């Protein structure tokens, strides 16, 4: 059975230039479908988790979520009525689980043939973002993940061929997708992270002996495995850093002599950080520097290291504890000047890459290890992403079927790094 479908998943939905572009695109898609004289409509699913604090407060806790009636689209969502999309069959649905379990994942599925994993939401913020497009059997796994979570009634009984899942030590389906630059297939692993609405995960105010440890999800396990088993270098670009497990893993990498480069933000989503973690990124960064300067000898940190090594998420962690710590570089993203923005855009004209002229924060979620593996997706290095939010990431390894390097990971980092030119404030450099 074949059909034409499209689905967009976003965490946040708000009136914005992005929404206007989305509406324009949907209208064009509808017109193209009518111009083709097709009797079938294109099924389009818009799925989001949050549009306001009030919406989350009164949102149904049912896993079936809430489907917005078409007569409410304009008032509540800023969408035109369905009469303006005659070539589309449009469904709009939201899911949220109190107190803090947003569905933070962001992805776009097109005809079950392509998937795009952006870092951005349908929102007004002008942040530095990125997206990666993937094709191949892994697209079906993303579709299965979406169908299981969002439960679109029209698709429950559809039959289709599913690829066999190769076994993975990281508990995620492994497939390959084609690197468009090299023309080679890359080893790719889908990293889902289900939401958890339990109070033991959500409330940081609970005594530590009552709090649950973060779930050993494919995304959590993979990030810890990569960071703590790095050989030479770890690069982390994250909007926020409040996860204790991520912090401890970075400390362990530095103890093992691995160089760490961290890029994050100041004063980003402060109320959310305080509500979900009881601390701020700046405080965690200052603690990391303090621990680094005293050689990670603090009793509290040593206890946290022992707990991390004993956890189910790190069954194979290696601790070399080199005499010399790895180098540590920490930078904060800052809004570029107009002159810097123009220079960066001019310098990247050939590739079409560049920074937003008014980007106030970096919203990219990226971890690179040894220039051989990269994790991209929706997950931050904060407490919410590691414990309560639903996330979706992808691990891309820089090797083809024969185990040869393609240089794809290095190219991806060069592209992102080029856009950071003129936007970084060095805060600490060992």
Strand order of the largest sheet: 11-12-19-18-17-13-14-15-20
Major sheet size, sense and barrel closure: 9 strands, mixed
Based on CA atoms alone, the radius of gyration comes out at 22 Å
List unreliable stretches of 5+ residues: 156-171, 178-182, 344-354
What structural category do the secondary elements indicate?
alpha+beta
Fraction of residues in helix: 25-40%
Assign the CATH topology of the largest domain.
Endonuclease, Chain A
CATH superfamily of the largest domain: Endonuclease Chain A
Count all strands and give the number.
20
Global shape: globular
Total domain count: 2
Number of helices, counting only DSSP H or I runs of 4 residues or more: 13
CATH class of the largest domain: Alpha Beta
How far do the termini sit from each other? 59 Å
